[in-house]
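Input record (Table S2, row 314):
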Amino acid sequence: MNRASALAHPNIALVKYWGKQAGNHNIPATPSLSVTLDTLTTRTSVCESERDRVEINGSLVSDKKIEDFLVMLRAAHPLPPLLIESSNNFPTNAGLASSASGFAGLLTAIDAAFGLQMSPSERSIWARRGSGSAARSVFGGFVSLEETNGDWFARSILPMEAWALKVVVAITSETAKDVGSTEGMRRSEETSPYYSGWTESTKSDHAAGLSAVSHQDFSRLASIAESSCLKMYALMLSSRPPLFYWNGATLETISAVRELRNGGVPVFFTVDAGPQVKAICQDTVADVVVERLSRVPGVLRTLVCGLGPGAYVD
Ligand code: 2P0
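Output record (2P0 complex):
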């Protein structure tokens, strides 16, 4: 019986991906740059079964993204019907990148179970077809997703041990978001008057981000990442109907991060398609950041992550 399981971690984009190129290969409109986390974990196992079944956090689900992904993968690699069991130790579909760790882990487990012998770049390409951000969770530490030799896949740009940073996640809601990223991106592409400005400026943000990471220049990375996040949100707000992923506590937490930095604490914020705030800081100040963010009204709890590895067979 072919069977394997994999562990994968979400990643947090510092230069965001929001928008796709035309066509059905899920190719991003822009390059992106992220950090892979530790602590937050998705465990995915696959084995042969009589028919395809997907269980997420112990419940049988019907997931169109996974179904479509399996159709694409089977067109290239004959696979039997599968039982896929995936569980997260963090809220699912709430802006914590569960689809990133989900598809990176799924692809890694399928590759191992059926001896497909994919290279990391090939795994990243296939994970991207499932979910764009998943291409990045195949790798650890700092990761870039960009076009190379005519295809789009991620690569590691700085190993996780190289820069002692922490990511403090302020959870402001445990509820799943009401508009998924794929639909949200389509809405922004089709309706936001800012979309072309977003795609153009993100290319130079990505180049600047690569340079800031290679020099481990915290304050330059902070400025690039906050700007990318806020630009993405401007794009979301200017879509019709608008995409509101934040709540009041999201904004209060951002203010607290800005106050800390103005007071000399090396920390910056980023937010994804959800209400949680991620505060990236030097590891020496993580306790100060946790203490301050925990006192923001509406913050339910905080999680502290370091930088983590790419998806691996368990
Ligand atoms: C990112 N996000 O770069 C951005 C920032 C959310 C906000 O990638 O349609 O679930 O499956 O390719 O990967 C979330 O989008 O979208 C995402 P699909 P995905 O992390």
